[in-house]
């Protein structure tokens, strides 16, 4: 790069210009780099795309010795190292994909002082020979990338990360910098304590990604809703579509391809070669859509991802925010679009009930779903709510669906009472369990086979809810769930009362609901 650097500029700035070819530091990069260059420990919390890599790469180049980077992203190490080598940085990696000779070569380079950066998979550090190798060289710093992987109940937990706390004991004088895009207070605290980073300085960047437009819609025919969105707003754009299951990944990718959109599947059940090839194509070619489970995406640096869509409710806001953060790293307008429905909540509750771990763990998972639900059903700015979850105060963003088309609120107290009274009536029928479908049929006065079978047409509540359409009732159920005024249980999503249901039934509590936007009837033009 032919940028002029004044002679009095710091070493860090010179490296930024000469090696990376950038004009200036972004956000708190400079502060972080200076702190680490001076030998301090750091915990860096920056959103995806914020520029975390330079925070350890530059100190590694400025300080004497080799910067050791611990990263779980084995599949990306080759690419990362190639990219650095293209800039003239002497980088190498050690992981399980290499054969003996390849490893020997990197080890020799390390010992000869011919490396600036050495990327390591965390499990390498559990191998005594690796530790001995490191002890024979000079280490400038340890960078622990994706540091939230040490958080035991987090969504990306890697047991090998727990062993990283030993780094400090073996190399007390080598600075450590832990980096993550996961933002909650609880995760920060857990990272600091598990990695023994009590004395580290914390650098917390704003997590706002103003160029990403957040939108959440209620799900009726998700594949078709997705197709409509892509055709209307994202023709020819690259993007990621997340689905919960491998089967729906396959089906959705097929559906998009049939409808003229170039899409590739990605999930852990695919052959690793196919996975690697699809990932490589997504990174290199323009305008591909990756349909994936959450197995895809960590560490992917593709600046022009124009949309991230979720066809199922994510398990937590932390996961959701990281996934959507993969859109628009280049700062250009991008879309984060989520379709969710009652069935998602039922499914998640079922998964939590059947999950391993103790009661406290299940409670935590439930709390995560509740926070997700609250975001979906809010009438306030989505971004304000998201950032608030991550401890950041902000004002109405003007670039989310609720800011752009403020949902109308209405007094749903009577409607909620009707629904809850129906649930109460059904509860009295011992042994039988009924979900939202049956409740809605009763409210609407529908004589379905199941309604007749259980004599539900004889209930006093039969037909008392004719003022709302079926979709509106479904929305009411979701909102009551989000407000904690009702709950779902078991495999069939049985509706049950909560501690606060009684306040609504007894008239001590008013319920405010958001109105479902009218669905524009869209022409059916897709192939199925
Ligand atoms: P993160 O790891 O936080 O997700 P990266 O380190 O991959 O983010 O950086 C995101 C993008 O921003 C990369 O393409 C990187 O080259 C670019 N970038 C980082 N810092 C700067 C800077 N100071 N000036 C210009 N571009 C930068
Ligand atoms: Zn907003």
From TrEMBL:
Catalytic activity: Couples ATP hydrolysis with the unwinding of duplex DNA by translocating in the 3'-5' direction
SMART domains: DEXDc (SM00487), HELICc (SM00490), HRDC (SM00341), RQC (SM00956)
Record-linked Pfam families: DEAD (PF00270), Helicase_C (PF00271), HRDC (PF00570), RecQ_Zn_bind (PF16124), RQC (PF09382)
EC number(s) per entry: 5.6.2.4
Amino acid composition bias (Basic and acidic residues), ranges on this chain: 513-528
Top enzyme class: isomerase
Domain Helicase ATP-binding, chain residue ranges per copy: 33-201
Cofactor(s) recorded in Swiss-Prot or TrEMBL: Zn(2+); Mg(2+)
Domain of life of the organism encoding this protein: Bacteria
Molecular function in Gene Ontology: helicase activity
Helicase C-terminal domain residues: 222-376
Keywords tagged on the record: ATP-binding, DNA damage, DNA recombination, DNA repair, DNA-binding, Helicase, Hydrolase, Isomerase, Metal-binding, Nucleotide-binding, Zinc
CDD domains per UniProt: DEXHc_RecQ, SF2_C_RecQ
Tagged with keyword Cell wall biogenesis/degradation: no
Residue ranges, annotated region (Disordered): 513-528
NCBIfam families for this protein: recQ, recQ_fam
Similarity annotation: Belongs to the helicase family. RecQ subfamily.
This protein's name: DNA helicase RecQ
């Amino acid at each position: 790069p032919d940028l002029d650097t004044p002679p009095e500029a710091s070493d860090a700035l010179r490296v930024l210009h000469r090696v990376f070819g950038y004009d200036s530091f972004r956000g708190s990069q400079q502060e972080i780099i200076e702190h680490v260059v001076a030998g301090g420990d750091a915990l860096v919390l920056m959103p995806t795309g914020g520029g975390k890599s330079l925070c350890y790469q530059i100190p590694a180049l400025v300080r004497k010795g080799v910067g050791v980077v611990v990263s779980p992203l084995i599949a990306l190490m080759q690419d990362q190292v190639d990219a650095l080598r293209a800039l003239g940085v002497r980088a190498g990696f050690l992981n399980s994909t290499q054969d003996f000779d390849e490893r020997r070569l990197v080890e020799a380079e390390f010992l000869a002082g011919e490396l600036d950066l050495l990327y390591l998979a965390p499990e390498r550090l559990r191998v005594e020979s690796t530790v001995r190798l490191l002890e024979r060289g000079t280490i400038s710093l340890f960078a622990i990338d994706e540091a939230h992987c040490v958080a035991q109940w987090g969504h990306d937990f890697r047991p090998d990360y727990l062993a990283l706390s030993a780094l400090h004991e073996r190399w007390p004088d080598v600075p450590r910098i832990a980096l993550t895009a996961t933002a909650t207070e609880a995760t920060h605290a857990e990272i600091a304590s598990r990695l023994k980073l009590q004395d580290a300085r914390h650098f917390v960047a704003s997590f706002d990604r103003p160029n990403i437009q957040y939108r959440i819609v209620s799900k009726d025919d998700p594949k078709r809703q997705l197709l409509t969105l892509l055709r209307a707003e994202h023709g020819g754009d690259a993007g990621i579509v997340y689905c919960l299951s491998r089967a729906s990944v396959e089906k959705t990718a097929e559906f998009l391809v049939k409808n003229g959109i170039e899409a590739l599947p990605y999930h852990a059940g695919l052959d690793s070669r196919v996975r690697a090839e699809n990932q490589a194509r997504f990174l290199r070619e323009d305008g591909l859509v990756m349909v994936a489970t959450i197995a895809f995406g960590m560490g992917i640096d593709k600046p022009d991802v124009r949309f991230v869509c979720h066809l199922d409710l994510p398990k937590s806001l932390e996961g959701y925010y990281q996934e959507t953060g993969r859109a628009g790293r280049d700062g250009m307008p991008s879309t984060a679009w989520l379709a969710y429905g009652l069935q998602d909540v039922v499914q998640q509750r079922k998964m939590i009930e059947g999950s391993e771990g103790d009661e406290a763990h299940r409670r935590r998972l439930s709390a995560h779903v509740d926070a997700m639900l609250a975001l979906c059903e809010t009438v306030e700015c989505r971004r304000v709510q998201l950032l608030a979850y991550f401890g950041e105060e902000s004002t109405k963003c003007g670039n989310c669906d609720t800011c752009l088309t403020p949902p109308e609120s209405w007094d749903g107290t009577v409607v909620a009472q009707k629904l809850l009274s129906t649930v109460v009536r059904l509860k009295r029928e011992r042994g039988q369990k009924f979900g939202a479908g049956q409740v809605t049929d009763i409210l609407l006065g529908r004589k379905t086979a199941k309604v007749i079978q259980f004599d539900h047409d004889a209930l006093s509540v039969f037909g008392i809810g004719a003022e709302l359409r079926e979709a509106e009732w479904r929305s009411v159920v979701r909102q009551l769930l989000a407000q904690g005024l009702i709950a779902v249980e078991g495999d069939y999503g049985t509706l049950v009362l909560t501690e606060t249901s009684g306040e609504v039934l007894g008239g001590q509590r008013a319920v405010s609901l958001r109105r479902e936007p009218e669905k524009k009837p869209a022409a059916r033009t897709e192939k199925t």
